[in-house]
Structure formats: C-alpha cells, structure tokens
Protein 1
Amino acid sequence: MSEKRLFALRGATRCINDSKDIKAQSTAMYDELLSKNNLDEEDIVSVIFSATPDLTALNPAAALRNEGRAEKTALFVCQEANFSGSLDRVIRILIHCYLDTNQTPVYVYSNGAEVLRPDMKIC
C-alpha cells in the first residue's frame, strides 16, 4: 500500500457563453485531470471553479453535478476578478485531492488557456 498526501491540481479551459459548451468543457477538463493523474473521485477533497465574468450561461459546478460527476464532493464556484488584459471566456479548476506521495501532478490547460501558464510544461 502506498502513502498518499494532499495535492492541488490546477487546470483551465476556454469556452463560449453557451450552457452546452460550458458543460462540455468543464466536464472534459475535470475528466482529463482525473485521467492524467490516475485519480479516483473518492480521493478528492474539494473542487473549486472560477469563471470569468463573461461566462453566465451555466455554473460549471452545476454542470459537473448534472453530468453525474463529483456527487459526494464539496464543489464551489466563484467569479474571476475582472482585470485589464485578462483572458476572456475562461473556466479554471482547482482540485484538492490525495495522490501517491511520489506522484508528480499533471495539470490541464486547453482550448487556448495554455497561454495562462507558459512557464509550465503541461501534458
């Protein structure tokens, strides 16, 4: 049996202000983070979403629940601060979870959100 410790997995994606696209992109980002990190939902402590002010069609946390994900996990969503020059149409995610101690977390940035972290090698 391996030891586990608490990690925070990050990700971001861009989408259009449409409930179907917000649902699709939020779920895909979540699923990819779980897949790339070999993460089981029972090892997740909480999930925090943020969305830029221009995304109003659907709450990303509600989208995740509606797709049958994270049913026993604490979810929270907030609105990103609106700073001059910020990237628009972005949903960010922060997953607090337990992974094997020696595991290197993999982050997911997609659909143009990769520019938010040019300093990271993102798989």
Note: The chain has a mean pLDDT of 93.
Protein 2
Amino acid sequence: MKKEKREQIWNKYDKKCAYCGCELKYKEMQVDHIESKNLHLRHKIEGVDRMSNLNPSCRQCNFYKSDGSLSLFRNQLSTINDRLNKIFIVRLAIRFGILKYKEFDNKFYFER
C-alpha cells in the first residue's frame, strides 16, 4: 500500500483506532479491512482496498476482529464480561474491588 493512502487511513479518525479510540502512532497502526479480504475473495466482490472499506486499527482490535464482520466483533465485545466471569481469578478480583466491569455500549469509536 502506498504511503499516501496509508497516511489518509491514519488520519481518517484523527490518528486514533476506529474501534477503541486509542491514540495510534503511524508505525504501529494496522490497516483493517472492514469487510475482510477473504469475504471479497470468496464471493468475488471488488473494491476490497477502497478507502471506505479501510479503517485505522490498533494491533489488539485488529487481532480480535480478525476477518470477522463488524457485527461479530460487536457481539464478541458485548459478551466479554460473561466470558470473563467464568474465570475464577476474575471473580475474585471483582469480589475484592480490584476489578470492575464496564458494559460495552455497542458503539465503536468511529460511530460516536
């Protein structure tokens, strides 16, 4: 990908991850395909690298979203508290007030 296009993607949301909103350094930014490359290849859809399909992303969000859809990623984040509650040490940390949950409001940074 050309540097100019990569810089446009980086600036798309003020140098922040489109999903969690954390500050992104240019060299650490990953470019996420909103609709995955695999989806485009399987269904022979064109435009996988169009600007509207590219988001700046931090490593964690890009890894966790993987090649899933935005709705799948949203669902994964919405159920994270329930999944964490299955881990004994997390339940213990909550009991002692070391850890507190915050509900995911179902909105990504780019949707606010």
Note: The two ends are 28 Å apart (CA to CA).
Protein 3
Amino acid sequence: MTRDMGLIRELLLKLESLSSPRGIRHIDPHNPAVSVEGYSVDQIDYHLDLLREAGFISCPGTPPPLTGIMFHRLTWRGHEFLDTVRNPEVWRETKSGVSKIGGASAEFVWEIAKGYVKHLAKEKLGIDVS
C-alpha cells in the first residue's frame, strides 16, 4: 500500500478533535469519526499506523490485536505539521508543487508547505521569514 499525504492530513484533522488531555481510546478504522470519503478501512488503518510511526500522534500502551490504534493525542510534531498544512490554499499549493517534481518524502512535503507559508507571509504581511 502506498502512503497518501492527503489522507495523512485528513486523519490529523480528524484526530485533533478526538485528542484528550487525560484519556486514551481505541480508534478503530471502522469508526465514522475517522472515515475519509474515497478511502477504504484498510487504507485508514494503515495510515493511522503510519501517523504513529512518524511520531505525529501519541499512542501509549500496547497496540490493539487486530486493527486501529490506542490514541491519546497529537504530538508536538503532529501539531506542527498540521498547522503548516491546515490552510486549504497552502495544502493545494503544496500538492501542486509535489506533483510537479513527481513525489516527495513526508519531510520534503512539509518543507514545501513551510516554504509556501513563508511566501504568503511575505506577500500578505510584507514580512520576510527566512
């Protein structure tokens, strides 16, 4: 299965609202709270695991035996990534840039998004963020 950065972004947006400062919950890929139109349960399950591996979400304890994750909250890294790609315009331009170069690692996608945010700061605020 291939990694889909669009699905990564969508899942982070959904998981952000499910974060709990105190609780840990099992997030099953069948749960409508994490369903994303156009994606299968298997794809969602796979990408939930990728989010855990990337350190974007905190999943303490033992993983469930079959599917899903034990979810606590987004990590600092997860919030940073999501805050960079949250704006639909930034995400659209990031995806466009990635498609022009034929794909990129998650870290490079993040760098492209950061570059576009810096461009917007210069264009809209007159601030040169280097």
Note: Residues 8 and 80 are 14 Å apart (CA to CA).
